[in-house]
Amino acid sequence: MAIIPQIEIFNLIKDEDLGSLKDLKMILENLPDEEIMRVLERKRGNGRDDYPVRPMWNSMIAAVYFKHTGPASLIEELKRNAQLRYICGFRGYETIKNPKTGDIIETRPKCPKDYNYTRFLGNLLEEQELVNQMFDTCVDKLMELLPDFGQTLAIDGKAIQSYATKENKNQKEDGRRDTDANKGVKTYNGINEDGTAWEKVVSWFGYKLHLVVDANYELPVAFTVTKASRAEIPEAKDIISTTAKKHPELMDRCEYLLADRGLDDTEFITELWDDHGIKPIIDMRNMWGVKDEVRMFEGRHNIIGYDNFGTIYCYDPVEG
């Protein structure tokens, strides 16, 4: 964990009185984040340390856990919630004075400002590889604690909308515009009960999360974030290949991979079985575009035909 010195006062608070903060405390205590903390502290060096690295990091984990959408709501929560401040490691109060008279207007908890989080996040983004290593360490630890972790995996993609709505002509990276996002399009189609085809096209501007999880424990195993236009099948191949290199024991454990029909690809299915011994459980696409169509099967005296999903229709030549 990002250890906070002199947190003894927090020990006086019973876990049962913490509510959802108890889970946050457990997360902070078990994250293998020490290497990241040391790197960020070396970056800061002898500069101003009004808000140390470790409380800043802990509060960002809290922001993710409590689903804050930005620094503003997190800061308001820190100001309001003394227990959260102590868990994260923020201490002390600051006084606000009248600039003309010097009189104290108010005393309030000392909490980071928006720009403090902007700078901290900028430094953290430069250490993405360390964040990935922390994630992989957690996966390895789960494999030690859960002998069946990874036996059944599931993979899917998720659209992530950018705050921007379209590509900006000015691609200068100055923190004021999204220079990485692009447009993604996903098509859904099928066959109605009456046999007619339907199609729905969804588009967004932003990114795509490609996620592999343990289907039983609902815990992540691997992930990538790409531009929205990145196709799911080639990314799925890459993420499975990378996972096999990082966690070979996990792939040896894996018996099944679940996916929707967007990943119904012959090459991907073949690689799963031939290279990794994983049985793919993937919904099949109707490549014929017609519901319940049966085609004749030539050259077999007792086989009538077959459909798009491989069902074979036969008749008994004795019983008819």
Summarize the structure.
The chain has helices at 8-11, 21-30, 34-44, 53-65, 71-80, 82-88, 114-125, 128-145, 232-246, 248-253, 266-276; strands at 93-97, 104-109, 152-161, 182-191, 197-214, 219-227, 256-259, 279-282, 295-296, 303-306, 312-314. It is α+β, with helices and mostly antiparallel strands and 320 residues long.
Please characterize this protein's 3D structure:
By secondary structure, this protein is α+β, with helices and mostly antiparallel strands. Helices cover about 35% and strands about 25% of the residues. It is built from 11 helices and 11 strands. It has helices spanning about 10, 20-30, 35-45, 55-65, 70-80, 80-90, 115-125, 130-145, 230-245, 250-255, 265-275; strands at about 95, 105-110, 150-160, 180-190, 195-215, 220-225, 255-260, 280, 295, 305, 310-315. Strands 3, 4, 5, 6, 7 and 8 form a 6-stranded mixed beta sheet that branches. Strands 9-10-11 form a 3-stranded antiparallel beta sheet, with no helix packed on it. β10 and β11 (about 310-315) form a beta hairpin. α4 (about 55-65) packs across α6 and α9 runs parallel beside α11 (about 265-275). The chain starts with 7 loop residues before the first helix and ends in a 6-residue tail after the last strand.
